[in-house]
Task: structure prediction
Amino acid sequence: MKAHVCLMLLLFGAALFAQPNAAPEESAVLQLQRQWLDASQKGDGQALRQFIDDSFVGSTPDNSIINKQSLFPPGGSGPMFTNTHFAGLNAKVIGNTAVVFGSMITPGDPTALRCAMVYAKRAGTWRMIAAQLVPVSEKKDRGEQ
Result:
């Protein structure tokens, strides 16, 4: 019986100490996600290069596979995701990996983008290593039929 009580106390204590560390990391990743969108909207290539890892791979709404270089169109192209905002962002951090889920909504566009971005913490810095953008109707995204 003492062994069960000790085990329960140990597990409870570990859970208590694990939670405070996760919340700041999740907040940091969510902040980075917002900074990524801001840099994309401004066409700030220098900031984007800092957020996105060289090993990045992504899937676009039209099912194209892209790499980091694909995110930097030739000069003269307009910024990406203008007038777009996030909705329902959630982050989950497990060790040196983070996943962010949410939606990207552009007012007036009937299609929202469901997004999943994966970040890796390398040398103390979170960097986006993968992304998938899937088009969904805004009604479906809000849970309507």
User: Anything to note?
Assistant: The helical segments are 2-42, 45-51, 138-141. The chain has one domain: 2-141.
